[in-house]
Amino acid sequence: METIQSNGYNIYFEDSLTQLVKFIEQGKYSRSFVLTDENTSVHCLPLLQQYLGEDGNYDLIEINAGEESKNIDFCVGVWKMLIDFGADRKALMINLGGGVITDLGGFVASTYKRGIDFVQIPTTLLSQVDASVGGKTGVDLDSIKNIIGTFTQPKAVFMAAEFFKTLPDRQILSGLAEMLKHGLICDAAYWDKLKTSDLSLPSLELVHRSVEIKNEVVTEDPHEHGIRKALNFGHTIGHAVETYSMLHDSDPLTHGEAIAVGMVCEAWLSNKKAGLSDAELAEIVEVFGKLYPKHKIADDSYPALFTLMQKDKKNQGNKINCTLLTRIGQFSIDNICTEDELCDSLRYYTTL
Amino acid sequence: METIQSNGYNIYFEDSLTQLVKFIEQGKYSRSFVLTDENTSVHCLPLLQQYLGEDGNYDLIEINAGEESKNIDFCVGVWKMLIDFGADRKALMINLGGGVITDLGGFVASTYKRGIDFVQIPTTLLSQVDASVGGKTGVDLDSIKNIIGTFTQPKAVFMAAEFFKTLPDRQILSGLAEMLKHGLICDAAYWDKLKTSDLSLPSLELVHRSVEIKNEVVTEDPHEHGIRKALNFGHTIGHAVETYSMLHDSDPLTHGEAIAVGMVCEAWLSNKKAGLSDAELAEIVEVFGKLYPKHKIADDSYPALFTLMQKDKKNQGNKINCTLLTRIGQFSIDNICTEDELCDSLRYYTTL
Ligand SMILES: NC(=O)c1ccc[n+]([C@@H]2O[C@H](COP(=O)([O-])OP(=O)(O)OC[C@H]3O[C@@H](n4cnc5c(N)ncnc54)[C@H](O)[C@@H]3O)[C@@H](O)[C@H]2O)c1
Ligand SMILES: NC(=O)c1ccc[n+]([C@@H]2O[C@H](COP(=O)([O-])OP(=O)(O)OC[C@H]3O[C@@H](n4cnc5c(N)ncnc54)[C@H](O)[C@@H]3O)[C@@H](O)[C@H]2O)c1
Ligand SMILES: [Zn+2]
Ligand SMILES: [Zn+2]
């Protein structure tokens, strides 16, 4: 599998941790710091240690797992550890974890002494196929996601499918939704391949194709003006469903599970408004139906869901801008949808 | 006075607040936010309001005055106000104040929603001649200065000498030290001009020349590898004196007052080691002697001062790297000084 060149850095697939060792040697860093969370310390660090050695070659900084850690207080904690360890401008930060670790670690590194080098080792499917490309770092504030952050590219990204072995099934499903999205918006052949693959433990080849697609989209439109909106497919409704679930459900949906709901609804809208055929809609519904458990959307939640869609930063005022499919493998941006249409699509999902 | 072009942005001198109004109009910003501290709200905001209008055209965010505010807690406060005001990605932040406001405001803006536009209106002499150029933003953590920050250029800088009228004398003297430094390292004619000017209220022409000099140095060496070290003249000893004073004096030295002490000491070292003539040393001593009150340096503080010099990020290990003068208007970097030499220079200052 070829190394992918993103915005000034490489994303390694083949033998990637050997590449990491080379990268560190060539970088002449004063010191390496590995950032983990409680889970990746247990499940992912041992593999890394086989390459870096167990002692003396780096300092370890561990934070609590989960989105609740993705805030400024934890940044201050990590900054202070870097200070205590005497990290200077030639230090390297190695972020080993899911999107929380790579987003927070990237932000901390991009602001420590006005920026030190960092590399990403994403250990969840979602962070490999999504967070690894695009240069977004960030943390939450006042429960607003990613409101504080920078655009800073890592110096390299290292992928390994070994990490998936310890991932809970729902984490696999979460990343898978973004992969299915990549197929739906840009590459019908990839979508077909996903349909027929064993998706309980996705292969690195599949990850590679997803990263390629996201990389192409992001490189063409680094500042989210045009075609990057393609990546929003499923997200207008999905984000609202995700936030609503977080506020109301005892066991909330993951990001990908919510996006899966959103993609079914927005596929229906695509069929109504953008030319997606009945057969293609049926196919999309079938694929998601097999993979994802049905989510209950109560009738009386529609107004709240619509309000959430309006608040989404990608929309202005009353009009809700959706990215839809003209057919499988092809998207169309800036489709204005009304409240009625959006609620009808939720209703459609409910009847399935 | 000509507008100075720095790294992708303009620094306006002539009619600068009229230029600001134009800048805002052309920028099509969704909203402007003015950041002030208690003092600049009183002394500087009224002038700005004459141009922006008093009501409705911007939201005001005020923080406490002083270096104690330059930390992450105050950043969180400002970020939350931006959120509460509904600031979006097309918002503009206008930092109206001294270096604390321009450094903190720049950092907050460069990280809010991964970066919104900001402009600087520096209101102290120090912030006009120094902080306005170079793209450094930042805040302190654990009393380590500027340890968290970014390199982000403002979209424009607007200078006005009117602000100096309300500045305390010691704040004038603080900025003046950097101006004298600019003359000493790069421009003998400017140094001569400063010597014969009324420096109780420096003219915008003088500020302009200082900004030009700093801009040339920084543009040639954006990442502090070579000639940017010229700007360190007086700072090796000056920083140590500043920190020591902060820790021990009831009324600590300002940055510039400490740098003035440092420049006298380092002029003596320049005479001993780098070719500065006896006459030039005498001239430098006389100019600083007239402008700055004598600072007491106790004999038993020398070891502590030397330790502080060693900790300075610009040095490695035992060797202390100084920028010295070969003559007035010409510098030489990377002069290695021993503990004895440095202490002798402090002793020299004390005997004056
Ligand atoms: N920067 C971007 O462009 C981008 C893109 C998408 C998502 N994100 C961010 O990513 C975050 C979500 O990503 P995520 O789902 O990876 O979150 P996460 O980092 O919270 O990981 C999910 C859970 O899996 C655990 N885990 C990680 N790797 C494991 C492994 N190999 N084995 C067992 N457990 C493991 C983690 O400890 C955590 O409990 C969100 O904060 C989101 O904002 C960022
Ligand atoms: N970014 C850079 O390149 C750079 C360069 C030099 C200094 N700095 C930073 O700048 C800071 C020091 O700058 P400073 O001395 O301007 O600090 P400051 O902002 O604290 O200002 C000094 C005092 O003057 C008050 N003040 C400001 N303008 C006034 C006016 N017009 N009239 C009356 N009072 C006024 C302030 O409220 C404050 O009390 C430090 O934090 C330093 O790290 C940054
Ligand atoms: Zn997503
Ligand atoms: Zn200085």
Automatic annotation (TrEMBL), chains A, B:
This protein's record includes keyword Zinc: yes
Boundaries of every 3-dehydroquinate synthase C-terminal domain copy: 175-315
InterPro entries: Dehydroquinate_synthase (IPR050071), DHQ_synth_AroB (IPR016037), DHQ_synth_fam (IPR030963), DHQS/DOIS_N (IPR030960), DHQS_C (IPR056179)
Domain 3-dehydroquinate synthase N-terminal: 61-172
Keyword Nucleotide-binding among record annotations: yes
Gene Ontology annotations for the cellular component aspect, listed alphabetically: cytoplasm
Signal peptide: none
Domain of life the protein comes from: Bacteria
Any one Gene Ontology molecular-function term assigned to this protein's record: nucleotide binding
CDD domains named in the record: DHQS
EC number: 4.2.3.4
Pfam family, one: DHQS_C
GO BP, one annotated term: chorismate biosynthetic process
Function: Catalyzes the conversion of 3-deoxy-D-arabino-heptulosonate 7-phosphate (DAHP) to dehydroquinate (DHQ).
Protein name in UniProt: 3-dehydroquinate synthase
Natural source organism: Mucilaginibacter pedocola
Lineage: Bacteria, Pseudomonadati, Bacteroidota, Sphingobacteriia, Sphingobacteriales
